[in-house]
């Protein structure tokens, strides 16, 4: 059975079962999305794409973008990053502030909010125009000049992001934010506002399946070693307190966002993205998780 | 460069650098071990072994044995196991009791002490003679009738294991221990007392690199799916609060013990064991971690 | 209006309102008590008693006895007690094990379970026959040779006291238990099994309203300074995570037990006991709390 | 021995022993204070004052002012206050954010930072010009039109108060802040900036020893019942994680500030203030605590 058939069969099956969970509503814009959306795109390392459903509809990738800001910071060669952010799983969402307090303002990893905020602070220290240079970097990685921030989403995040304001101020109190808190959090809210389609997403993140090199052009985004390490971080920290469950059931490194998107990587082979807005109780796409579990059960290909 | 050369070169290099850390002393027997011991054995899926140093000296594998009790429980087909134990990383050693309290006596995963104690309780529910049947199972997996408990270590664990007594009673208070606490903890202390050499260790755990099948005989120890899942659990939970660091720097699923042993797996390829008694500040073998990091840096083969 | 009238009026009013909450059932014996029981006894410093309802029915005083074991330990002059137990409120019931872990096995105060277990350990270190000598001490303080342990309750506590076994083993792992855990916990379970009537209770604890001296005989149980300090500890720590609420609404130092008893003290004036088995959601007698709040609202006499 | 003699003797003795601890330096202005300052003033309910040392030097009363904002909120009759703030001790400084998270943004009590910020939010909801009306209220209670905010201190708090910004945003994320966070925190920083002398302090707080009535004028600041309850809150929550220790050693309701001031109350008798800038490791005035302990040891008058 070829890849397109497996994608389609899995898609059809998952679409036939109950679409459980709830769309994120902590910002009004996310709450407006049609919960019936469901799209998939697998991009192999040679650039071939296999799709199903709403694979070309734009959605808010939210926290998935944290992998790109991390990649940018790594490519800038900042030496302080692993002194200022750990690489351990966070244990649980519940613990985020607890751990931050007992660990003196050092976030557990760069993919939780606190860690991504420190990454934004690092970017602010290195860049003259952080917002402009970050989106330029992401367009470059995506090989697509049309990728953009959603100002509507960014402003909505800002108007409702009290917990993120709390995080940045709390870390500033420990000395782990070097720049002005308003500048840092503004960059963070913009990072969270980026929109992509499933096809753009799996293509953009293809370098992580390709030893750090952009698909087709083979341009180096990260070194092979950096790329492996980003995959390792996604594996252990990419799904909040469901990282172990995802490793256990799916077996691929990946990252989810509250917009209902997930991207996952089989190193040396392919990158796959799924989007379905309803979230399970741990904040990951309900259908996205089910799809990937069934897909890897069928292909028998995982990193384990 | 062939495998034996890489093993030897890496061994020689690591032996030449400072042997930092401290031997575990929480039970007197472990404290008596010569800290200069250092052995390595890599067993490929065809059964070939490459060694360096003290690869044939017996040592206390301690928590590494938790993977075998888990495998035994999985092979018994108990349906309740994933209701009674989660598969998420524990966040940090510090949190173990905190999390157990806030999560109503459900351990975070089967490789921390609390989780392994619940696994022992499950074994007690299924087996008539738990201690005898567990060692018989392990001898069978190891294909070696000489594997044994160390009664000296088991008694020493018992005389000093107040925190483990606390854990089993605490979980009993939540109803997550079904058998008599003394029977369960006795099985747990015996499990922790097993001794192996590096060569025995990498051979015994070879089934995890071989899709669940014993090396050479191809006898099924676990199904392919179960085997992948045990690897996923080792990947996210095998090194206490250094799981992320190990994933980041080494990139293989593995498990460590406070006796200074580590076993790690490259699926479909090989199993490697390292032993050096001095532990780093997170309780994992100092030289063992360094060796595996350098070894995978050289071979460029990781799951990521 | 005289004291007897206020006691009777308050009693009648509280009896007329809904008897909310639940009888403790964690040990079967407590669950068998008739929830309609309701008794009160106020003993003035001159020994006069004012009563209402079931003031002469025996009930399990449970944790209220922790004040007597503390008094005994203080009278033995052990210097280590305040190095091994703190005098701070515990914050909340939820935190007990959390705090014990982060504070290296030092209980927050001598009136929570962990602290009372350390007090029992101190008694075991000083006494040849701890169980016999403790009950003898309590009979002496009560000036009543009939006070006794309930073996039924003590055995029932033992059969169900997994969390207390967890606590004693946990503290032993930190070195804060010096004697055999089984001996210590046996003394603790016996301490918790003592039975008194309301009239016995307010008379026994009368020394805390009387500058440390037994009522009528004026025999010194504690020095004046020790007596004040026990009152201060009851004030800040006597009601688990409802200590502040009790101070706020009642304004007297006191101690509650899960048997539904409460004893409270107005220094230099009187001691009052209330018993009603149904507990509010924080584990204190529902009617007992209501009674004392209304009583002090009427008398206008509090320590504040 | 009369009161003046006891004050002087105690003062002389405490001045003769080592002046341990450190001046607070988290804002530069506090760090500039001469650590040798030491003043005491006791005001009896008839208005008589007994003093020693620097009793008429202005200092930053810091958190002591939280009692006045609480009194103001109580006098405004807001019904929601005890739904939005608890009255339990906080357990420990360490736990503040932990507890706030696990308790859904409800502060433990109105005297910790988080609770005082909610009180400021309540004032913002009731007042048109919160800053002006708060200082007017305090002048009225103090019967002294000269009491003022220190703009220097308030601005310094603002420039360094990242943890307080974190708190207000964190509670806003739980919906427990109703007004604009910037307005609320500005009022809070001004509240923290008030300066008084020891003599002003013990006179201003005299209403808490006087059944809620201003000394001399007998004007009602709080009802008798409210006054008792504020004393009860100070008793259980006035000294962060040293509340139990203060109750145990001193035995009076009171409140401390990081400027080195302490005010304490013996109901129906007197109010006493002490000021010495060096703080012990729990953030309370080193000499202040020692003075009050020795003073009440001498007078034998405590609430217990």
Describe this structure in words.
The structure is a homotetramer of 304-residue chains. Chain A is 46% helix and 11% strand. Chain A has a single domain, classed as DD-peptidase/beta-lactamase superfamily (Beta-lactamase, 3-Layer(aba) Sandwich). In chain A, β2 (39-44) and β3 (49-53) form a beta hairpin. The first copy, chain A, has 14 helices and 9 strands. Chain A has helices spanning 3-16, 28-31, 66-75, 81-84, 96-102, 113-126, 130-142, 151-160, 162-173, 181-191, 198-204, 224-237, 243-249, 286-299, and strands spanning 22-23, 39-44, 49-53, 59-60, 195-196, 254-256, 261-266, 270-275, 278-279. Chain A has 304 residues and is of the alpha+beta class. Chain A has a 5-stranded antiparallel sheet, sandwiched between helices. Chain A has a two-stranded antiparallel sheet with strand order 1-9. In chain A, strands 4-5 form a two-stranded antiparallel ribbon. The radius of gyration of chain A is 18 Å and the shape is globular. Chains in contact: A-B, A-D, B-C, C-D. The C-D interface holds C 86-92, 94-95, 99, 102, 108-109, 224-225, 227-229, 231-233, 235-237, 241-245, 247-249, 251, 253, 267, 297, 300, 302-304 and D 86-92, 94-95, 99, 102, 108-109, 224-225, 227-229, 231-233, 235-237, 241-245, 247-249, 251, 253, 267, 297, 300, 302-304. Chains A, B, C, D: Belongs to the glutaminase family. Chains A, B, C, D: It comes from Dokdonia pacifica. Chains A, B, C, D: Substrate binds at residues 63, 113, 157, 164, 188, 240, 258. Chains A, B, C, D: It is an enzyme of class 3 (hydrolase). Chains A, B, C, D: Keywords: Acetylation, Hydrolase.
């Amino acid at each position: 059975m070829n890849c397109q058939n497996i994608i389609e069969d899995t898609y059809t099956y998952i679409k036939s079962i109950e679409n459980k969970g709830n769309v994120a509503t902590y910002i009004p814009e996310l709450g407006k999305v049609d919960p019936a959306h469901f799209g998939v795109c697998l991009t192999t390392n040679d650039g071939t794409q296999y799709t199903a459903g709403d694979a070309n509809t734009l959605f808010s990738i939210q926290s998935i973008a944290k992998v790109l800001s991390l990649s940018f910071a790594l490519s800038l060669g900042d030496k302080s990053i692993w002194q200022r952010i750990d690489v351990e799983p966070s244990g649980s969402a519940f613990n985020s502030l607890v751990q931050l307090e007992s660990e003196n303002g050092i976030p557990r990893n760069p993919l939780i909010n606190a860690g991504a905020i420190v990454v934004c602070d690092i970017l602010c220290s290195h860049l003259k125009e952080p917002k402009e240079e970050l989106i330029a970097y992401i367009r470059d990685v995506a090989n697509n000049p049309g990728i953009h921030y959603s100002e509507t989403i960014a402003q909505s995040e800002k108007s409702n992001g009290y917990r993120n304001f709390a995080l940045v101020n709390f870390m500033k109190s420990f000395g782990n934010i070097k720049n002005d808190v308003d500048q840092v959090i503004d960059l963070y809210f913009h990072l969270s506002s980026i929109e992509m389609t499933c096809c753009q997403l799996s293509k953009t993140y293809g370098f992580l399946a390709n030893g750090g090199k952009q698909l087709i052009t083979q341009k180096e985004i990260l070194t092979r070693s950096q790329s492996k390490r980003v995959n390792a971080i996604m594996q252990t920290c990419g799904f909040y307190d469901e990282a172990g469950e995802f490793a256990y059931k799916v077996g691929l490194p990946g990252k989810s966002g509250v917009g209902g998107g997930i991207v996952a990587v089989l190193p040396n082979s392919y990158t796959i993205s799924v989007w379905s807005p309803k979230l399970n109780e741990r904040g990951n796409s309900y259908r996205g998780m089910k799809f990937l579990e069934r897909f890897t059960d069928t292909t028998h290909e995982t990193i384990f």
